[in-house]
């Protein structure tokens, strides 16, 4: 799939909490096709300490308005600089990168944790466009760590798990009453321990499962090999051959 390096204009910004915000970015022309789970490499402007672009999942796509949106958690200098950008500012993106989720299955569970919620909105919409309404299970330490909620409701049956019980059921997503064996496919993105627990459940119950890995990245295009993961076919670049992988392909993921 062709990659583009393009300036986008920020046309919307939502601040959800001290740590989470979203940006809606408008392209001057028609957007290319973007698969759920693909990501962008964002150039962080005006901060000389941030040399490398930062990988961020494509959270939402609006083909009619030529916009895409990013949901970002502030964790360091790059994401903090992005959080200070305003409507009207320009951002340079390399996109769409990586391989996204397969849109397969009839009884589908999406499990997101923290910033891993980001790619699941576009994924929910892709399922909805095929007439499939997924169950969406979103988790975080507290309510504030699940910044996007009602956006999922038109596309999926949405449930929450928080460690402090401030939203939905108290506990981890893997302890939630909707985290059952009633699915033929599970798609997940979030902290690695969460995804590994989800993958173990899927493997034990013969459920197809895809995980979206968030390994540290530099080039984002398969050139520097800094993002590799061990697979049954040797090392794979998460940026180019992922970030989405079927768990059957990954080594040591369900142990
Ligand atoms: C394919 C992909 C998609 C991603 N999608 C999103 C998204 O939609 N929203 C979002 O908020 N974040 C996403 N991330 C994570 C995001 O890229 C990092 O949080 C960001 O690059 C950190 O940059 P920084 O300059 O703010 O932090 P830095 O100053 O570089 O680092 C601050 C801290 O964050 C840790 N960190 C840096 N990069 C990562 C990473 N990739 N994974 C885990 N910890 C990291 C560092 O170890 C350090 O502790 C994604 C990562 C990948 C690989
Ligand atoms: S980030 Fe350079 S090879 Fe993946």
Q: What does this molecule look like?
A:
The protein folds into two domains: 4-97, Translation factors (Elongation Factor Tu (Ef-tu), domain 3); 108-212, Nucleotide-binding domain of ferredoxin-NADP reductase (FNR) module (Rossmann fold), CATH 3.40.50. The chain has 255 residues and is of the alpha/beta class. A seven-stranded antiparallel sheet has the order 4-3-7-1-2-6-5. The protein has a seven-stranded mixed sheet with strand order 11-10-9-8-12-13-16, with helices on both faces. The chain has helices spanning 77-83, 118-129, 192-204, 238-241; strands spanning 4-15, 20-26, 39-42, 54-57, 60-62, 67-73, 90-97, 108-113, 135-140, 157-162, 169-170, 185-189, 208-212, 228-231, 234-237, 244-246. The protein is globular. It contains four helices and 16 strands. The model has no long low-confidence stretch (mean pLDDT 95).
Q: Which class of the largest domain in CATH terms? A: Alpha Beta
Percentage of residues in strands: 25-35%
Helix segment count? 4
What is the CATH architecture descriptor of the largest domain?
Answer: 3-Layer(aba) Sandwich
Keyword list:
255 residues; alpha/beta; Elongation Factor Tu (Ef-tu), domain 3; Rossmann fold; seven-stranded antiparallel beta sheet; seven-stranded mixed beta sheet; 34% strand; binds flavin-adenine dinucleotide; binds FE2/S2 (inorganic) cluster
Question: What layout of secondary structure does this protein have?
Answer:
Elements: E1 4-15, E2 20-26, E3 39-42, E4 54-57, E5 60-62, E6 67-73, H1 77-83, E7 90-97, E8 108-113, H2 118-129, E9 135-140, E10 157-162, E11 169-170, E12 185-189, H3 192-204, E13 208-212, E14 228-231, E15 234-237, H4 238-241, E16 244-246
Parallel strand pairs: 8-9, 8-12, 9-10, 10-11, 12-13
Antiparallel strand pairs: 1-2, 1-7, 2-6, 3-4, 3-7, 5-6, 13-16, 14-15
The protein binds flavin-adenine dinucleotide and FE2/S2 (inorganic) cluster.
Residues 39, 50, 54-57, 71-73, 75-79, 115, 118, 214-217, 243 line the site of flavin-adenine dinucleotide.
């Amino acid at each position: 799939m062709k990659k583009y390096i393009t300036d986008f204009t920020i046309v919307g910004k939502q601040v959800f909490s001290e740590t989470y915000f979203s940006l809606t970015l408008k392209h001057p022309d028609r957007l290319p096709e973007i698969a759920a789970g693909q990501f962008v490499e964002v150039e962080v402007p005006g901060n000389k300490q941030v040399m490398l672009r930062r990988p961020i999942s494509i959270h939402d796509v609006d083909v009619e308005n030529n916009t895409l949106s990013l949901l970002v958690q502030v964790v360091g200098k790059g994401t903090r600089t992005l959080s200070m950008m305003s409507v009207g500012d320009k951002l340079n993106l390399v996109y769409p990168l990586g391989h996204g989720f397969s849109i397969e299955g009839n009884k589908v569970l999406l499990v997101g944790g923290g910033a891993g919620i980001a790619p699941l909105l576009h994924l929910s919409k892709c399922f909805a466009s095929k007439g499939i309404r997924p169950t969406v299970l979103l988790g975080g330490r507290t309510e504030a760590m699940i910044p996007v909620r009602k956006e999922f409701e038109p596309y999926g049956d949405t449930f929450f798990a928080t460690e402090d019980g401030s939203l939905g059921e108290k506990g981890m997503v893997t302890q939630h009453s909707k985290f059952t064996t009633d699915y033929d496919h599970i798609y997940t993105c979030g902290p690695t321990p969460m995804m590994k627990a989800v993958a173990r459940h899927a493997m034990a119950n013969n459920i197809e499962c895809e995980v979206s890995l968030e390994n540290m990245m530099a080039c984002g295009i398969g050139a520097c090999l800094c993002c590799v993961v061990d697979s049954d076919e040797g090392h794979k670049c998460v940026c180019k051959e992922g970030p989405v992988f079927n768990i059957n392909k990954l080594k040591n993921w369900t142990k």
